[in-house]
C-alpha cells in the first residue's frame, strides 16, 4: 500500500463553544451526565505533522506548562500507534493559540486533529466511529472534534447528533483565571438534576450553563467578565470556564467589543465553522 506525502502542515485544531450545558445526572463512577450544544469555531491551534520511519513520536517546540509525555498530542499519537500496531512515528509541532483550561477544548481539539492527521499519514485506516471511540479514552470532548460538525451532545460527550445552526459571529473573553473542571463538578452546590431536553426542542428551550453559577461564585472574575460582555449581548460561560462568550450580529460588532475589552482580560472574535477542516480526511 502506498502512503500519502509525509507531511501535513498548518492543520487547524478548532476551538469549541458550549452554547449551553446542562447537568442531567451522574454515572455510578461519579462522572456527570451532560446535555450540551457544541459549536465549532474558525479559531484555534495550528499543528504540523511529519511522518517518521523509526517509530519515534516527538513533540517539537514546547507547549507552556505541559510536559511532552503528558501532552494530549503525544498521548493521542501513542494511543493510535499502539492500537493500530503501526510501526511509523511522527514529529508534531503545536502552535498554541487557545488559552489552556479555558473551556474552549484546545487540548481535546489538538488530540482530535492528531488522531485524524496521523490516521491519514500512517495509513492506519480507522473510520470516524473508531477514531471517536479512541478519542473518548483521551477526553470527553475529543469525539466531538472528530465528529467534525456542530452537535447536540449527551452522556459524558460520546453521544452525538448533528445540529444545523445558522452561521454566527462570537466574541470570546478570557478572564485570566484558571477554573479547575474537577472542582466545579465536585461542588456541593452544583445543580445535577436539570430536566433533559430533546434535540428537537433545543431552539425553543430556555437553556443555561449549570456550571456557571458555581464558577462565578468561586471565581469572581468570571462573573465580572460575563457582566461586562452582557452589556453588548447575552453572555455565558463555555464548558467549565473560565472563558465566556456572546453571539453578535456582525464581524464589525465583534471587532468593536474586542477593542474595548478591559486590559486585564483577553478577547477574540471568531466565526462558527460548518465543518472541521480535516473532515474529509476521515473515511
Ligand atoms: C465540561 C466540559 C464540557 O465540554 O468541557 P471543558 O470545560 O473541559 O472544555 C467537558 O465535559 C469536560 O470533560 P473532560 O474533558 O472529561 O474533563 P476533565 O478535565 O478530564 O475532568 C476533570 C474531572 O471533572 C469531573 N467530570 C468531568 C466531566 C464530566 N462529565 N463529569 C465529571 O464529573 C471528573 O471528576 C473528572 O475527573
Ligand atoms: N496540547 C494541549 N493543549 C492544551 N492543554 C493540554 C494539552 N495537552 C495536555 N493538556 C492539559 O489539558 C488541560 C485542559 O486543557 P484545554 O483542553 O485547553 O482546556 P478545557 O478542557 O478547559 O477546554 C490543560 O490544563 C493541560 O494541563
TrEMBL record:
Its EC number is 2.7.1.148. The keyword DNA-binding does not apply. Gene3D superfamilies: 3.30.230.10, GHMP kinase, C-terminal domain. Coiled coil: none annotated. InterPro entries: GHMP_kinase_C_dom, GHMP_kinase_C_sf, GHMP_kinase_N_dom, IspE, Ribosomal_Su5_D2-typ_SF, Ribsml_uS5_D2-typ_fold_subgr. ATP binds at residues 99-109. The keyword Kinase applies. One of its GO terms (biological process) is isopentenyl diphosphate biosynthetic process, methylerythritol 4-phosphate pathway. GO terms for molecular function: 4-(cytidine 5'-diphospho)-2-C-methyl-D-erythritol kinase activity; ATP binding. Residues 206-266 form the GHMP kinase C-terminal domain. It catalyses: 4-CDP-2-C-methyl-D-erythritol + ATP = 4-CDP-2-C-methyl-D-erythritol 2-phosphate + ADP + H(+). Pathway: Isoprenoid biosynthesis; isopentenyl diphosphate biosynthesis via DXP pathway; isopentenyl diphosphate from 1-deoxy-D-xylulose 5-phosphate: step 3/6. Residues 72-149 form the GHMP kinase N-terminal domain. The active site is at residues 16, 141. Keywords: ATP-binding, Isoprene biosynthesis, Kinase, Nucleotide-binding, Transferase. SUPFAM superfamilies: GHMP Kinase, C-terminal domain, Ribosomal protein S5 domain 2-like. It is an enzyme of class 2 (transferase). Catalyzes the phosphorylation of the position 2 hydroxy group of 4-diphosphocytidyl-2C-methyl-D-erythritol. Belongs to the GHMP kinase family. IspE subfamily. This is 4-diphosphocytidyl-2-C-methyl-D-erythritol kinase. It comes from Pseudothauera rhizosphaerae.
